[in-house]
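Teaching note: in complex prediction, the entire set of molecules is handled at once rather than each chain in isolation. The prompt given to students was simply: 'Predict the structure of this complex.' The entities are:
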Amino acid sequence: MANRRYTTRTFALEAAMVVAAIIFIFPIYLLVTIAFKERSTWSLDPMAIPLDPTLANFQRAWSDAYLGDALISSIVVVTGSLLVLTFVGSFAAYFLARCRPALSNTLYLFFLLAMILPFQLGLLPLYQMMRDLNLLGSPVSLIVFYAGYQLPFTVFLYTGYIRALPRAYDEAAKIDGASDFQTFLHVIFPMVRPVTGTVLILNCVFIWNDFMTPLLYLQGSSWATIPVAVAAFVDQEITDWGIVFAALLIGVAPVMLLFAILQRRMMEGFAGGLKA
Amino acid sequence: MSIIEAQRMQLAQHRPKTSAWQRLLKWGGVNYMFILPALIIYVAVILLPILRGIDYAFTDWDGLNRTINYIGLANFQRMIGDIQVRSAIGTTLIIAFALVAIKVVFGLLLALVVDSNLKTGNYLRIVFFMPVVLTPIIVSYMWKYIFSNQGPLNLLLNLAGFESLRWLGDPTIALISVIIVTAWQSVGLSMVIFLAGLQAVPPELNEAAVIDGATPLKRLWFITLPLLAPSMTICVVIALIQGLRFFDQIYALTRGGPGYATETLSTMIYRISFQFGEFSYGAAVALTFSLIVALIVLPVMQVLRKREIVHG
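The expected output is the structure of the full assembly:
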């Protein structure tokens, strides 16, 4: 905006926006506070600030919803998927960025197919494939799923960036006797660190938050991830909101923490990364 | 045959032999091992399942039976007569278009306000973006409480002198409630996409317009909005795809109810395939759903792309 002066009108706008923001964020305030209230407190006045907070809800939720197991399960799935996605994705992107243009374009279109053919269609056959391979109920099924599902997006994100790197880097490494793999791992990969950051953040948030896939593949197994474990628990305990909110808060705390540390990075990643 | 030619032939025989296979390996320019893992995963996890999904839509397979019979278009015929599927298509479209409108309008407004010279701009954008990263299923259960009969929302209504509403129990209101939750969670995404677009608007253009006496509204309409066209495309397409596909919010809030008022195609496919075990019918609905998504998203992209201005 060209007008940069701070006038009374700007102040009025600012005040209105702050009020709007407080209303907007109010559900999050409830999410955080109700978990610390006893039944008698939240049922009487759900919106008051908890003056004598209790941790009893958290103890119940933690043990009854098996959130410790779910946390480990989520961490295994997210870490495994991110490892596969980062390496397989960046390797493929290096190939796409550096191979013959004709081959590159063909492969690009080939990967683009996944975005045109909607994945909903593959959900059932993939479920059946996992069942035949005896992978249902194992975190491996989820890692395999996310490695495939998030791959085209990851590849596109990396390819755009690697293409912009001058080939002189590769050639210099080759002259020094480096193989393709050495060139990539020691020269190119360190230079694309910003994309790796975006890839990790976006995929991490997506995989951590995903509910439908683990609901299909892990339901009833001891490997339920956080969203599945929380949903199953909440559906049982739906009347005791104090305990429910404790489970919800534990479940959402890791992403909240990640956001608290990386807000700027995350907003940039979401704004730019989804264009790919 | 001259001596030189003979020598040349001898030399040719001594040249290290490259087989056709080796030449093919070299042809791409980069070692194929870089792309191989990605291709294998992509074909096995994405491409083959999708193709099989299309195939199942024309069979009577129930997911367990050993024998599979091709039954032509019978699944699709059944679908045309299926009132629930028809109502789910309608609901899905209503939700998707409502979400696109809300997210574009409010996302743009938020971006413009947050990007103006407010002192709290940076905090505001963090607040409005935060729900985007939170787990949808967890956020939805939180809203389920807010919407509950004795929940905070009705409490506030009562305090203001109004009757309680059945936020999730009344068919029409339930649909609106689902839209509210989803919009609340994703409007911040539109905001940051527009904010990124605003950074690309050259300040000289606005300054020149101010000198020419253009009002803020005119500057918005003739300068900012046209230059935001690429962000608009991304926003609309993402909102549309999300709106057509979302599942978690309905699973947590209403399970498709009351009745079938909030049943969308994705919850419908889930129920048909995994709860009723009718794999092939589910596949037919999924195939139709995919076609609907493509038929809506692709033309929208075309129209929006045309409005984008190339400037540089």
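Point out the following to students. The mean pLDDT of chain A is 88. The CA atoms of residues 137 and 219 of chain A lie 7 Å apart.
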